[in-house]
Amino acid sequence: MAVVRGGRVTFADGALHRDGRPFVSVGVNYHPSPTGCDYWREWDGARIDDDFRRMAATGLNTVRFFVFWADFEPKEGVYDPEMTGRLRELARTAHRHGLTCLPSLLTIWMNGQRFDPPWRDGRDLWRDADLRERQRAFVHHIATELRDAPNILAYDLGDEVIHVDSTSSAALGAEEVRGWWGMLAGAIRAADPDALVLQANEASAVLGGHAFRPEHAERLDLVGLHGFPVWTPFHIESVVARKATAFLPYLVRRGRAHRPVYVDEMGSYGCDESTAARYLRAASHSAFAAGAVGTAVWCWQDFTTDRKPYALRPNERRVGLLDADGREKPALAEYRTFARRVTGELAGFRPLPAPVGVFVPEPEPQDEAGYLTPSGSDAPAAFYAHLLLQQAHLPYEFTSSDADLERHALLICPSTRHLSLPDRHRLARYVTSGGVLLYSTGSLLDAAGDEELFGIRVRDFTRAEDTHADYTWAGVRFPLRWDPGPIPVIDVAGAETLAAFPDGSPALTRHRLGEGSAYYLNAPLEAQLNAPYRLQEAAWHRLYEMVAEEAGVRVPLTADDPSVEVTVLGRGDERCGVVINHAPDPVDTTLRRRPVDGAPETTERLRLEPKGVRLLFWSDDATARDPGREERQT
């Protein structure tokens, strides 16, 4: 790999660039194996130099490392010059080997334990005025030390800082989080005007529980997201399950609705080396296809140290791309192939505008929630909508009420449990202007008051699940499992009934409104899929396919197996179909490509290994070239 030299990484059109060329960051998280989290105090520059040399030889171009606050500011307001000297040396070493740096500042939380500056003494990171000033001064100090380094990719304000005090962080409102992010980002930019700034959080940033969310991150340049299939509120059956490798791209797609996304921690726990390799192959390609501007695997090498945090968390010692003796694990070969692709033949390819939008309302402010708020979680619905769209091969993106909804031919509101009146009015304008809306309700009260938009009204509710056990539309049966609680019973009031429940009441309706149509499904279809193996019980994605047909959604590339993801990326007039088998078994499938110029449809039969990946390249005005290159299996 050629050594990367030149100016800082910048943004243009939502993508990273360096020296005027597209730049995809492919990296790894790093502590030296022998010292772990103690490496700043037990410095071994030769070891770091050797590790970075090997990273670069593998094809990586980024290293993410952690600036432990307690090491760099051992006394309040006093910085250790030896530590900052080692920090500059690390950045120089990385640059010498062609690696960009992603330093994580204010590092306190690591692998389930705190590495607190002793002088913090339990003070609140977000509401203690003196401690806020110390944080501001610290990130300014670090950025000052690194501002002349040409290889700083971005500064991470702090890795998963919500866990430093989870009670306090969960109580913060959106404006408080925006203010904290803005204060620290401003301090970094004052010291290093060319800096990009992010803050990395685990999946709860998307799935709920606190305000450190992408939709509040306008004062940051990127958001950092972590996704591991073993830690989700969803019933992912195993690391090899199709849901597992679809989880990471889901987080990317949710985040991209608001800010560019860097996946700065990814990988798998609780599985053998072969399973981990296959997981990384499919998940990394799918995250890139979803629009991630970079990825960093957790982590570089297994640890030989047995000190904090590994004494308490010994499972954290064995998740490296290298084992403790330096042997390459199969996952490294997969990541090497991925790195070669995204920095080579896929460089500059980005997601195309999507004809399908998924509208997920913002959560109610915590201080305004109460007995009117339905019990349960909104998180599963959007994830399973993502899975159904992936299975239906429909190009989509997440969106919000302040976005240009009219650019989407079809808008999906999955299992909505709360929708404000302004959002309802916004959706009505979308439909009236010619859009097609598919809305599935998630609560009794949410079903009320929709006569104008959906042409239905609530008659009553019932708890007789057998009367609403299923419905059939266009020859496809959709069995339902209801959570305990009232089930709305509706009547049409201007809409037409497309499918009915066993008691004869409407299940699926369609209301013509203005130039468009509003479909109303009186069941939380997406949310009720959150159970082990439930996704395989029926052809749930057929609902999306059939409504998309009416909306006139034209899909450029499809597969006849729902386990196969097909995502089309663009680079000018060039197109690349990223074809991924998310299933744990081999798949034989037929790809169908529909040229935009009206030329005849082309087909190709493929065999994909478990979690296998193929690429298909073509131009909008030409036939496909190089029908596909299957990734080398390990």
TrEMBL record:
Keywords: Glycosidase, Hydrolase. Residues 20-302 form the Glycoside hydrolase family domain. The keyword Nucleotide-binding does not apply. It holds the Pfam family Glyco_hydro_42M. Residues 382-553 form the Beta-galactosidase trimerisation domain. Belongs to the glycosyl hydrolase 5 (cellulase A) family. PANTHER family: BETA-GALACTOSIDASE GANA (PTHR36447), BETA-GALACTOSIDASE YESZ (PTHR36447:SF2). This is Beta-galactosidase trimerization domain-containing protein.
